[in-house]
């Protein structure tokens, strides 16, 4: 019988869980006996595979316009390649699990979480980080708008927010729908609701959200004005 | 993360053959689920086969008026395809309800279908979990199970399948196309892709080892009002507690599948005979075999209410 939600069982379960985890950590993980799954379709653990030494791999990609060739452990995420190998520390590591957006960069024109992709998967790719959007002397309009509207407090999430914000306006312009787009067949507009929804993958612990939205609104407005005047926005 | 060797596949058949023959080999597509789990050493592949370069990223019309969606089509591109927005709106809606913009830009059709559960104990290598470590026990049964499944679960595992997209594909009667290690292809109805846990919760799909998903085909459009409602703890960027994918025809007949409640997209065709009677009757059929925990009993009521809201919206 299943004792779903029974409080006593749950306490006992927790204690047993603790004992079992202690036992688990005591056993060497490598070569631990696993059930023979070889004949089970799609079993996620195909039995023990020996742990190998680190494997090196070469990857060539363009970062902020400059060609780079790196010799790296295959395990290196794009985020670690940028920060640890190329010393581009503008891009931040928050959660390292796709949950916060601090690592957002633009790869081949699209914003992605650089923590959940391997550098080796981007052979020939083109990466733009916050350092590549603009320079202190010539800020990208979104960077300037963040400064003007105080779109940050501690600043840790900011590079990811800025990369995301730039891409969000492009996504709206490209007509990509979002969860709050009322009609799937009409072109989405840069409304507050649209920008908030599309920025939900960027978490800010300081809660600078409303100022970020103001910055984006200003840039979205500039973009629209520029389009109407037949100018290409920067 | 454990060290691994890496290669780019050269053809679907080559990828499949290698995945079957190289010990510890796995496909990597977007990597948004696999790498997450590799960092926690819940997944420990020794060899990664990158399938991104296989050209499986196109959406094409089929001779019978349907759509064939390549396995590597990104979630963003599928949601934004005008044919999908017009004729398979439930799929666009489900896709944009999932994850974040950054993740959808990378996540693929096949990877989304094969993403693994979000059961918090599965994610914690220090806790017993039959899915992660067969035979070790299930920490969720008798533990914190608010987010877990209420139907289709077993004594061994009560985890849910977390995908939004898959729920819409189930209601659209999609078919999963694959290539097997010998080079033979097959078509698997989406209803048969995910397996119920029974006493082998670590075996999650009907795919063979090395079998590569190449595409998902959608039959020709069925029309109707197509809706996806997702109820979650945050307004965005959170997994479903309960979701409803529905296609409602002008005469009140239709189809319904639930997400967030079961180890696979949950659809019971017989329950759809009650569509005209309303949400209570349909949900009763859908969740007749539900065995909720005290923590997640609310999902039964929530499913009914969410469906009621969907039906009201469909009626306009
Ligand atoms: C913070 C966060 C929030 C999320 N929120 C949601 C949400 O709300 N709703 C939702 O639905 N999802 C959500 N997701 C999950 C996301 O949708 C999945 O991670 C994504 O769809 C997986 O696709 P991928 O291409 O990155 O898969 P991968 O990580 O590349 O692969 C996943 C699995 O599929 C296998 N695989 C990949 N391609 C193939 C193929 N062609 N044939 C056979 N096997 C293959 C891989 O070997 C692996 O086992 C979230 C993820 C994160 C990190
Ligand atoms: S519900 Fe399934 S995934 Fe979660 S702890 Fe139990 S066996 Fe593991
Ligand atoms: S560090 Fe990549 S999303 Fe948090
Ligand atoms: S400014 Fe501090 S986290 Fe966003």
Automatic annotation (TrEMBL), chain A:
Catalytic reactions on record: an aldehyde + A + H2O = a carboxylate + AH2 + H(+)
Subunit structure: Heterotrimer composed of PaoA, PaoB and PaoC.
Name this protein carries in UniProt: Aldehyde oxidoreductase iron-sulfur-binding subunit PaoA
Molecular function in Gene Ontology: 2 iron, 2 sulfur cluster binding; carboxylate reductase activity; metal ion binding
Any single Gene Ontology cellular-component annotation: periplasmic space
Swiss-Prot/TrEMBL keywords: 2Fe-2S, Iron, Iron-sulfur, Metal-binding, Oxidoreductase, Periplasm, Signal
Function according to Swiss-Prot or TrEMBL: Oxidizes aldehydes to the corresponding carboxylic acids with a preference for aromatic aldehydes. It might play a role in the detoxification of aldehydes to avoid cell damage.
TrEMBL record, chain B:
Keywords, alphabetical: FAD, Flavoprotein
Pfam families for the chain: FAD_binding_5
Keyword Flavoprotein recorded: yes
Entry's Gene Ontology molecular function annotations: FAD binding; oxidoreductase activity
Keyword Cell membrane attached: no
Superkingdom as given in the UniProt entry: Bacteria
InterPro entries in alphabetical order: CO_DH_flav_C, CO_DH_flav_C_dom_sf, Diverse_Substr_Oxidored, FAD-bd_PCMH, FAD-bd_PCMH-like_sf, FAD-bd_PCMH_sub1, FAD-bd_PCMH_sub2, Mopterin_DH_FAD-bd
Span of domain FAD-binding PCMH-type: 1-223
Xref: PANTHER family: ALDEHYDE OXIDOREDUCTASE FAD-BINDING SUBUNIT PAOB, XANTHINE DEHYDROGENASE SUBUNIT C-RELATED
Name the record gives this protein: Xanthine dehydrogenase YagS FAD-binding subunit
Organism: Nitrospirillum amazonense
Lineage: Bacteria, Pseudomonadati, Pseudomonadota, Alphaproteobacteria, Rhodospirillales
């Amino acid at each position: 019988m299943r004792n779903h939600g029974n409080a006593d069982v749950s306490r006992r379960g927790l204690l047993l869980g603790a004992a079992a985890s202690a036992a688990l950590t005591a056993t060497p993980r490598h070569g631990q006996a696993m059930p023979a799954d070889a004949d089970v379709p799609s079993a996620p653990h195909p039995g023990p595979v020996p742990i190998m030494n680190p494997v090196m791999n070469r990857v060539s990609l363009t970062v902020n316009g400059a060609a780079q060739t790196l010799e790296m452990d295959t395990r290196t995420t794009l985020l670690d390649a940028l920060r640890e190998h190329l010393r581009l520390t503008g891009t931040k590591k928050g959660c390292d699990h796709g949950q916060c957006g601090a690592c957002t960069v633009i790869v081949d024109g699209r914003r992605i979480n650089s923590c959940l992709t391997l550098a080796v998967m981007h052979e020939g790719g083109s990466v733009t980080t916050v350092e590549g959007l603009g320079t202190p002397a010539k800020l990208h309009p979104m960077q300037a708008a963040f400064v003007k509207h105080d779109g940050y407090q501690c600043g840790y999430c900011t590079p990811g927010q800025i990369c995301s914000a730039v891409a969000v306006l492009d996504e709206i312009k490209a007509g990509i729908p979002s969860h709050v787009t009322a009609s799937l067949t009409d072109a989405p507009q840069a409304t507050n609701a649209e920008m908030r929804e599309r920025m939900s993958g960027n978490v800010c612990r300081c809660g600078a959200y409303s100022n970020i939205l103001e910055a984006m609104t200003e840039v979205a407005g500039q973009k629209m004005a520029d389009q109407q005047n037949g100018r290409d926005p920067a | 993360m454990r060290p691994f060797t890496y290669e780019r596949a050269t053809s679907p058949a080559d990828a499949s053959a290698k995945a079957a023959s190289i010990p510890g080999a796995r496909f990597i597509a977007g990597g948004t689920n696999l790498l997450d789990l590799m960092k926690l050493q819940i997944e420990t592949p020794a060899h990664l086969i990158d399938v991104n370069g296989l050209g499986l990223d196109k959406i094409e019309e089929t001779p019978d008026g349907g759509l064939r969606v390549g396995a590597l089509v990104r979630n963003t591109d599928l949601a934004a395809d005008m044919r999908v927005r017009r004729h398979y709106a439930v799929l666009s809606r489900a896709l944009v309800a999932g994850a974040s913009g950054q993740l959808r830009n990378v996540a693929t059709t096949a990877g989304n279908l094969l993403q693994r559960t979000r059961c918090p104990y599965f994610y914690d290598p220090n806790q017993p979990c039959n899915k992660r470590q067969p035979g070790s026990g299930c920490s969720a049964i008798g533990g914190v199970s608010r987010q877990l499944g209420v139907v289709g679960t077993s004594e061994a595992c009560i985890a849910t399948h977390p995908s939004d997209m898959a729920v819409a594909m189930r209601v659209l009667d999609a078919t999963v196309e694959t290539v097997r290690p010998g080079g033979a292809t097959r078509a698997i109805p989406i209803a048969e892709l995910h397996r119920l846990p029974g006493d082998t919760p670590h075996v999650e799909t009907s795919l063979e080892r090395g079998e590569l998903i190449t595409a998902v085909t959608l039959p020709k459009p069925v029309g109707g009002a197509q809706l996806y409602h997702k109820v979650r703890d945050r307004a965005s960027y959170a997994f479903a507690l309960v979701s409803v994918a529905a296609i409602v025809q002008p005469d009140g007949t239709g189809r319904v599948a639930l997400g967030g409640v079961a180890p696979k997209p949950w659809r019971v065709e017989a329950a759809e005979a009650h569509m005209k009677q309303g949400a209570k009757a349909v949900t009763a059929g859908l969740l007749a075999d539900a065995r909720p925990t005290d923590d997640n009993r609310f999902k039964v009521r929530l499913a009914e209410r969410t469906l009621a809201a969907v039906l009201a919206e469909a009626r306009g």
